[in-house]
Amino acid sequence: MVDRLFLEKELFGRLGWFIRMRWGFIAGLLFATLLCRLFGVDLPYGRILAVGGLIFIYNLGFFLRHRAIERKGIHYTWRAQRAANLQICADYLSLTAVVHYGGGVDNPFILLYLLHVMIGSLMLRRPQVWAQGLFAFLLFLAVVVLEYHGLLPHYAVGEVSPRYQSAWYILAVSAALLVTLCSIIYMSSAIIQDLRDREARITHSSALLEKKSSDLEAANRELREKQQQLVQSEKLVSLGRLSAGMAHEINNPIQFIQGNMRILGEAMDSMLPVVDRHAEAHPGFKVARLSYPVFRQHIATLLKDMSSGTVRIADIVRDLKKFARSEEPSVADLVDLNESIGASLRLVHNKIKRHKVICELDPDLPKIRGSANRIGQVIVANLINAAEALGDRQDGVIELRTSTGPDGRVSLCIADNGPGMTEEVQQRLFDPFFTTKQNSGGMGLGLSVAYGIIKDHQGSIEVDSKLGEGTTLTLSFPVARSEGA
Q: What are 47-95's pLDDT values in tens digits?
């Protein structure tokens, strides 16, 4: 079936061509009238010119209407079909009048019926072409029959010929016209319909090709995004291996220092009473250029701070090893989101220490199933983004809240009171290689990878940001089901 929109555009364009051709017919009619007048042919020129004027008037109306619709840019098939039928019917009536005033059955303008039939085949559907052809033939037959019976006057071209009063002559001309009309309608309609079907198939094939091209482009775009995420993941794996090696190297001396600190603490407990007695006997006694009372007051605090520092370093090394551990995406351990938040805060402590950090963690938070270190990567990435958004603000605040929603999903909100984001930035926030930190070397891959990790955990991420008010990211994960569930 020919596409409706395709037929509409095709018919509307051909109507404009038909109107322009009618201007040529009017000029040809005037030229033919002038020649007949010069050669002394006796015809009712006034009436013929009146018919030409009528054609000019209605063609002008068709022309103005066509231009008005064209300016509006609105084309409707039923309007175009109606206009085509109206124009062809008006032409048949005008042509019949010209035939009558120009000699009736002897008028050579009879051939214009055939021309209009071919034009109708170009613009109308096959049943309409047959109806228009029958209408034209009946008009011609009515004129010659009325002239034959004397109900209409006969205008002869040249000498009066009795052929218009010969029933056999009229029958032969009418039959010839009818056969010719039918033949032209059949052939032209078949050819035009075949061309329309072929063009429709080409249009349909072109549309399918465009769709396949669009699908292929979308698939290529998705493949590029996956490839970019894979590259970033490989970088993270390489970084993880390097970090794990460094953590291992740091962990050995830290353990050595922790062991020595315990021994040093025990030794100091044994030595201090002896040194106290020595200091009493020698009032000016100093240790490490400090007066002994000052040294004695602060030595326990110094040892405690050193021991706490080694414990903190050991915790950071342990979190770093856990964060950098390479895992397959299919790993599905039970993950305590609160513990992941604590580990992530220790890792980025140096980055966020200038800002106030508020944690409101639900102590009864259910566990989720997934990869602890990959979820930690997401939290770390968002904490770093929040800290960078706050910049050097003295009143910068980062809030972390965990809760269980009414839908049974575990949620983590990471909010900051930074400058916020525009709508355009929010829409492209998770696009690979999109970044607002080009000047600082940002690659734009952190949040795109984080988005992929969240999706791998059947989670979701929502962004709520307003310029001048800050940004809130809400991560949501399904609660881990028991093995028997």
A: 888 988 998 998 898 888 888 887 776 555 557 778 888 888 888 898 8
* Residue 360, beta-bridge partner list: 401
State the DSSP string of 283-307.
TT-EETTEEHHHHHHHHHHHHHHHH
165-209, pLDDT tens digit by residue?
A: 778 888 888 888 889 888 888 888 888 778 777 877 887 888 888
Report angle CA 301, 306, 308 to the nearest 5 degrees: 95
- Angstrom distance (rounded) from CA 164 to CA 99: 13
Distance CA(457)–CA(451), nearest Å, equals 10
Provide the H-helix boundaries in 154-166.
none
Cα–Cα distance for residue pair 11/122, rounded to 1 Å: 8
- Residues 134 and 402: their CA atoms lie apart, in Å, by 83
Q: What residue ranges do the domains of the chain occupy?
A: 4-165, 329-485
> How is domain 329-485 classified at the architecture level of CATH?
2-Layer Sandwich (3.30)
Q: From CA 203, how far away is CA 250, in angstroms rounded?
A: 69
**Residue 314, CB-side half-sphere exposure with 13 Å CA sphere:** 14
pTM summary value: 0.42
- CA torsion sign for 357, 432, 376, 236 is negative
- Helices 167-281/126-148 angle, 10° precision: 160
Residue 126: what pLDDT? Answer: 83
Mind listing the pLDDT tens digit for each residue in 390-402? 888 888 899 999 9
**For residue 321, which of 234, 229, 385, 239 has the smallest C-alpha distance?**
239
